[in-house]
Amino acid sequence: MMKQITDGDLKAASPAQLKEYCNALREEIFRTVSVCGGHLSSNLGTVELTVALHRVFDLPHDKLIFDVGHQCYTHKLLSGRANTFHTLRKRGGLSGFPKRSESEYDCYDTGHAGTAISAALGFAKARDLKGETYNVIALVGDGSFNNGLVYEALNSIKILGSRVLIVLNDNGMSISPTVGGMHELLGEMKGKPPLDDVRLFERFGLSYRGVVNGNDLNELLPALEEAKNDLRHGSVLLHVSTKKGQGYSFCECAPVETHGVSPSQKQSEYNAALGEELCRLAELHPEIVAVTAAMTDNLGLRPFFEKYPARAFDVGICEEHASVLCASMAAAGMKPYYAIFSTFLERAFDEIIHDICAQELPVTLCIDRAGVSGADGETHQGVFDLSFLSFIPNLTVAIPKDIGEFRAMLRASADFRGPLAIRYPREGSEGAISDVKIGKFEVLHSTMSDITMLAAGERCLRIAEEVRGNALAEGLDVGLINARFLRPLDEELLLSLPQNTLITLEDNALIGGLGDAVARFYRARGIEKTVLNFGVGDRFLPHGEPKELMDDFGLGKADILAAMRKHYARG
């Protein structure tokens, strides 16, 4: 555990001491992430930048707002949390993202890209209206600068008439390498900035300064002091160049692989199956294309991008744009597969409804990290997708029980002519590849039992099997169904079930998910059944291990078994 370094220490330090502090911070981040997991290379690259911000500005009086926020580890170490940093991403410990409830130094919760400039303008305008005097700094990565929300915020700088400092941390990366026109423009500016490029930012009401070496305090500190002085007159953009993974050569050479680090041995992963199956299908179907929003490697698409580069598209952190791109390509006769994390799919909700589903276009959404995702906390839990997809007309929603069934669903999707969503967790078990019929459940254990469980997805089926084993040991007769489609439900099977009591399990919010759909199905037909729903309760889930969170927040095996005993006794 490292000694707490305060802002007072930084302000009094000599250049040599500052360098020592940076080395110590970098070592602590590496040591902790190696144990706890987390975002490694992005944090290694921003040590000097964060140290400089804490030295030059008066935090927490001044407000520092992170975009995304996964690069906030140095900030946490400098703001009174060094003695608890070893709890990073653990249940009850420090979050891996800024958290208002955790420290007064964290003035705004973040977790998705593109929000920092909007948030900074909001703080600045509130400051002005209240007659206060603090500075507001938005720390934004070049990957986030692709996001449309950034340009909505830039468009408001002159309108709102306030003053903010935007520190653009340009390392040429998001999770995957940054792509697009803005990336090329920023690359050009790393030499002598062309006058036209500078004027582009000035048109938004920003005084442009840069490019400064963000890993060299001798350059960075005076540049920040000048930017702070310029803030008295208007908004400023300070363009800083950093190296992702700075200080550890293997991280510098492999910034994608070391962006997020897991402390444990991985199981088989669904994303590998996605890459393999899409390559296989693309050989047979020349109309197949793959789309991602800055997540090529994390979603398993690298093999497809290498084998079919002309049919593979990374559009940067632009989830809405990616959705419309898929819709329009489908309207023109292509077969798009849009791979995305569940938490980021939330950002494209409008386009899923109006552009994909309202036009009944054959876009397949491959929704990774669905369900309880664990250590990244509230902003990254994938527990809302079943709810917000469940009511969209024309959309088919599939939930595979294992990687083998996922492969089967992908193969079936090639000839499917409507919108399709397949949601799955990160890790899973292999399984047999058998035929999957759209809208048909799978009976795993007899439906002639006294109580039947309907479980959606691999994690919930695993829980259901364990509960069933305990129930059988107590003499309770329990059936089990793999409810592998939310839309459409297997109406024929549901109507055939003789039991008065059914139990549904899903690693999704209870409101609007599988349990709601099953109960609504019976109510609409005037059929009296007791449908007991188990899933994530009505709250945002904190960070922690998925098994712990599922057990504590709605999917506890003891609670399910207790409900089963109670209703079994009633007959």
Q: Could you please describe the fold and organization of this structure?
A:
The protein is α/β, with parallel strands linked by helices and 571 residues long. The chain has three domains: 7-261, Thiamin diphosphate (ThDP)-binding fold, Pyr/PP domains (Rossmann fold); 268-428, Thiamin diphosphate (ThDP)-binding fold, Pyr/PP domains (Rossmann fold, 3-Layer(aba) Sandwich), CATH 3.40.50; 442-570, Rossmann fold, CATH 3.40.50.920. The chain contains 24 helices and 21 strands. It has a seven-stranded mixed β-sheet with strand order 10-9-11-12-14-13-19, sandwiched between helices. A five-stranded parallel β-sheet has the order 2-3-4-6-5, sandwiched between helices. A five-stranded mixed β-sheet has the order 16-18-17-20-21, with helices on both faces. α22 links the parallel β20 (501-509) and β21 (530-536). α4 crosses α11. The termini are far apart. The mean pLDDT is 92.
